[in-house]
Amino acid sequence: MNSLPFPIWALCFYKDNILISGGGGGKAYGVKNMLALYKAEIPLKTPIKEEDTGTDLVGSLEWLKKIDIIIAGIRKDILIIRISPKSDIEKVHRIQCEEEKSISYIKGSADNTMLLEGADEGSIKLWRINGGDKSLSRITEMKHNSSLTGIDIMPNNLMVCATFKDKTCRIYEIPSGLHMKTLYFSRKCDPQGLMFKGCCFSEKNDYLYTIQTGLKAGSYFTKWDVNKGFHPINTKQIHSGQSCVLKGSKSGKYAAIGTSDGSLKVIDTQNLSLIYSHLEFSLPVTALDFSMSEKSIFAGSADYAYKRITVKESSKVCYFVIALIIAIIIPYLFY
């Protein structure tokens, strides 16, 4: 198993590199809080650049490719980072959000003109990214009296989705921030409902994907039809235990899920087929990201370990070829 000298809490691909946040409280606690930029190869070698973040632990990272900046969530603040031609990690802006306890979720809009930021206590803010200096201007705020577990913004910038610990998935309108709809999910083994642990929209704005989890019920992946009032189309159980991280690919073709027992799952969102499932870590998966080509996924864990896997398409074509060969050969066996 490949590992780093610190627990991994957030990561994102940056071109052919991977930016990783890790640490354990800073020097005073024995493990420095770090931002480290590596060449995205396995195993990871000496960092191209690393920065001691002191007492600040970066909890979320998102690369906005079209404007070439990285957004980071640090405690109560939003940090805008640029990687220089010399691979220096440059801090462009730091926006203080004093009313929040901790920023846990960062998500850029598909066109990179807006930023969605979510805090632990259920506060969600939508920001406009100003074109010139990449500063932020607040558009609206959405609040719910429950801890947040995931956020996403629809690619056409018309809706926001947010999931909470009170077992709700809430849809909000952009730019007003008006609450439009609440989704719930339950099973016979857990009629009180399962907790939503993340959400992501499809590239064409027609589907919403969510992960739900329960202590006894396991984990379920659901596909909702946006154009039919978020009607649930299909649900598949993907794990017998609880899940903690959901990451959709930019095209919406795949979804990666990290579980509490360290398993990594990859789903083809078209037919909900499970195309990868393996126990990778000894502790929960803490961070996931897809490469630009979506052909690989990088995952990290609190146990210091990391893994890069190759995404393989659903094997429907293979099954068809095998069935065709059997259909041709079997008649000759009984001739």
UniProtKB/TrEMBL annotation:
KW Repressor (keyword) present: no
Organism this protein belongs to: Blepharisma stoltei
Compartment(s): Endoplasmic reticulum membrane
Key words of the record: Endoplasmic reticulum, ER-Golgi transport, Membrane, Protein transport, Repeat, Transmembrane, Transmembrane helix, Transport, WD repeat
InterPro entries reported for this sequence: Sec12-like, WD40/YVTN_repeat-like_dom_sf, WD40_repeat_dom_sf, WD40_rpt
Name of the molecule in the record: Uncharacterized protein
Gene3D superfamilies, A to Z: YVTN repeat-like/Quinoprotein amine dehydrogenase
Organism lineage string: Eukaryota, Sar, Alveolata, Ciliophora, Postciliodesmatophora
Keyword Nucleus annotated: no
Membrane topology: Single-pass membrane protein
GO molecular function (one): guanyl-nucleotide exchange factor activity
Transmembrane segments: 317-334
